[in-house]
Design brief:
By secondary structure, this protein is an alpha/beta fold. It contains ten helices and eleven strands.
Length: about 325
């Protein structure tokens, strides 16, 4: 096996060593066009060969089908993998959304179901996908801590939680990682959340580190995504209409800087995220081996302090047009 990405450690009081770059598996089953399970499995297995062993899924992806896909892909290779999944965005099998659920009894049931679908006896990292506003975080994390005691889960995480919620959760049981969106296009967590994570010794797992593909240069005003690709919808204002037109100007700046570094714009954008600290492990998602290999190439892109400052100046936070979701009601800030 080629280990091109090295390792990083998430968390201080409950440390988890993972590959320095992870793989988001969501798009292999839903949201980003027509799913192709065999292609997804091939991509996961190639990732393992390249040393990308930190795999991220969730029960709601598919729903439920993505965990089964990941389970198939890692059959016989479980010991190589740091496996993360999530609960809390409760859906029916037909895709209908029910609610955000952080009730203690649901936490236990959801974990058992995920273990069965994945075909494993434990999870390396178990996240609450979204914070339930109707259930105190202490109750939810208390139930998650019970899963650790039972040996079903090794480490706990939260996703899209505010600094105050993270602090309250960490007081109940050590939180190893917070998963949230972070990229050149999404930097609001730098104000309060990231300093809190570092104060408490909690790792950061950025999802959508390529801005859902726009930072790769693959999305253009002329390029049409598949009809069933959710990025075509108003749910992603940055990728449609005026938001897309304005944000493509910023992508052009990243592309020009990438040429100077002899890499692709996506590699440069991903290298920027990787350079934010050894406690940061991005999980770019892809369904294709060639895109996976390109992402792995970002680990070889060296950026100086001046390079990082140039990138931030080229993509000012306030210049990005549109919220990251059309409905931000479930995102704590």
């Amino acid at each position: 096996m080629d280990d091109l990405v090295g390792t990083r450690t998430l968390g201080g009081s409950a440390p988890l060593t993972v590959s320095g770059l992870g793989l988001g598996c969501m798009g292999m089953s839903e949201f980003y066009g027509t799913p192709d399970e065999e292609r997804g499995i091939a991509t996961i297995r190639r990732a393992l060969d390249l040393g990308v062993t930190f795999l991220d899924t969730a029960d709601m992806y598919g729903p439920f089908t993505n965990e089964r896909l990941v389970g198939r892909a890692l059959a016989g290779r479980r010991d190589e993998v740091q496996l993360a999944t999530k609960f809390g965005n409760q859906r029916r099998a037909d895709g209908t959304r029910i609610r955000i659920n952080g009730r203690p009894e649901y936490v236990v049931a959801a974990c058992d179901s995920s273990l069965e679908r994945l075909g494993v006896d434990h999870l390396d990292l178990y996240y609450q996908h979204r914070v339930d506003p109707e259930v105190p975080i202490e109750e939810t994390v208390g139930a998650m801590a019970g899963l650790v005691e039972a040996g079903k889960v090794r480490h706990l995480g939260l996703s899209e939680a505010s600094a105050s919620t993270v602090r309250r959760a960490h007081a109940v049981h050590p939180i190893t990682a917070l998963q949230t969106e972070y990229s050149l296009f999404t930097r609001d967590l730098e104000d309060e959340i990231l300093p809190t994570l570092r104060e408490l010794g909690i790792g950061l797992v950025p999802y959508s580190p390529l801005g859902r593909g726009i930072l790769t240069g693959a999305l253009t005003a002329e390029h049409q995504l598949e009809e069933q690709d959710s990025r075509r919808s108003a749910y992603f204002p940055r990728l449609n209409g005026e938001g897309l037109r304005a944000n493509l100007v910023l992508v052009e700046r990243v592309t020009a800087l990438a040429r100077e570094h002899g890499c692709s714009p996506g590699q440069l954008a991903l290298a920027w995220v990787l350079a934010q600290g050894d406690d940061v492990v991005p999980i770019p998602g892809t369904t294709r081996v060639r895109h996976l290999e390109e992402n792995v190439g970002a680990t070889a892109v060296a950026l100086s302090r001046a390079d990082l400052e140039t990138l931030v100046a080229a993509v000012p936070r306030e210049a990005v047009v549109g919220d990251r979701y059309g409905d931000m009601s479930t995102i704590q800030s």
